[in-house]
Amino acid sequence: MLSPSSDLPMTYTESILALCSGRSFIKSQRSSEKDAKTLYPVNICAKLITIRESGRKEAIVLTLNKPAIIGRNPDLCTYIVNDSLVSGLHCKLYAVRSPSGGIIISCQDISRNGITLNGQLIKKTSIILMDGDVIKLPNSLSFTCLHLWKGSADKLSLFEPTPPLQPVHKDIGRYIVTSQCLGTGSFATVHLALDPAKQRQVACKSIRAKRDYEVGQVMKEVRILMTLKHPNINEIYDTEENKKFIHIFLQLCTGGDLFTYITHATGSGHRMCEAEAKYIAYQLLQGLVYLHDKSISHRDLKPENILLYNPGPYPRILIADFGLARPNSYQETFNVCGTVSYLPPEGILALDNKHLGYIGMPADCWSTGVILYIMLAGSHPFDNEPRPSSNWFERVKRTRDEEISQELSQSYANADIRLKEKIVHGEVVYFHDPWSKLPDAKLLVDSLLVGDPQERATVYTAFDSDWICTELADLEDLYRIRVLSAYEN
């Protein structure tokens, strides 16, 4: 069976659970200072400051992708608190890169009695800790979070004209929406919010509609999406209309997105190990089967729209950003949408030929094939020719945030034309490394990247592929332990 590391003589499931449980982390924590400096570069992101009863001031230091665990168990925790209401493993703290280039500091409550965040009770969920936030263990210590790595401030539409120096709040329905911005886009901003009744943080996506009829159109789509309940789909909890704003309250994910995870958490080469890529692909297919069973297509599948529910290896993933989703997706549409580098040939042709249409569900399958290729190879199957930045990941990150010069714009435009031609003609290049070692994975990717949508693999046939079936029992066990058990609770 596959194992994520050759030095772990365990089953597929046991190996992954060991990586995720913190056992390997605890072992590394207890290695020598010299080894620690080799394994973890000095890259401090945040500190959590507390004062013991003796008056002694102490700090928990967080660095990238190196969790800290608070609790009573001296064998598994890195910071010990011996109070009766504190659980053996009470909470886990993480620092990971955010999609915007900053840092996400999160705290996952895994205790019996919960924690309080700035005086609000939080139980059995993950939260994002902003600079100055205070978490308190039950009848015990308080910790103040101090960010040492701070991203640039963005303009916000909900809290104009600029983010205030101190966080402010607005009551919208039953929610408390903060000025802390989690992300911005062309049509919406996402803010951190609190749901006191459910003892959890949520994400508030605020869309500004320019015309009255747009409000009704967006709400119609949102009501369809509110019916979706699946552990691999970002859940919509609630909506509120406020003048020209539509506020959508979503399940909060604290691990960033898949694109950022691949680029920063998978080592050199931006390539995942096969076992982790397969576990993520299995979850992606689970979510897509659920959607396609309901005749809903996403139409903008890409690593940036796949979120990690919590930080850490072998994450639970959630398909997100359903702004372009389409019901009745077995019907042809003439409204081409999505990201060019993830569009299928029929979508590319429809971009320049308005009389042509395409169907959403086969388009999702093509995008899935591209995502699998990226996870396993660390590169894009079509967008792979040299440009001003030869590394595809670096190029995507740069064009997210920067305006490019006219000369570079023309270079990108010419490259995009060639990219479209490659997609239409199905010019997939499988380099010897890693594909010679992954024959079953290559067959699956090949079946998803078929130019004819009628011949292309569906999400159902992808589940029947040898690449999935060889570890199906282990994948099902791991999914039940790590995803379904938490979702059902």
TrEMBL record:
One Gene Ontology term, aspect cellular component: cytoplasm
Protein keywords: ATP-binding, Kinase, Nucleotide-binding, Serine/threonine-protein kinase, Transferase
One GO process term, biological-process aspect: intracellular signal transduction
InterPro entries named among the record's database cross-references: FHA_dom, Kinase-like_dom_sf, Prot_kinase_dom, Protein_kinase_ATP_BS, Ser/Thr_kinase_AS, SMAD_FHA_dom_sf
Residue intervals of the Protein kinase domain: 176-468
A Pfam short name: FHA
Chain sites annotated for binding ATP: 205
GO molecular function: ATP binding; protein serine/threonine kinase activity
Domain FHA: 68-122
Stated family: Belongs to the protein kinase superfamily. CAMK Ser/Thr protein kinase family. CHEK2 subfamily.
Name of protein: Kinase-like protein
Originating species: Pholiota conissans
